Amino acid sequence: MAFDNDKYNIGIVGLIFEPQSAYLNALLATAVPQSVLGEYLQFSHKGIKIHPNGFGVDEIQLELQKMLPLPWR
Question: Domain containing 13: what range?
Answer without folding.
Answer: 2-64
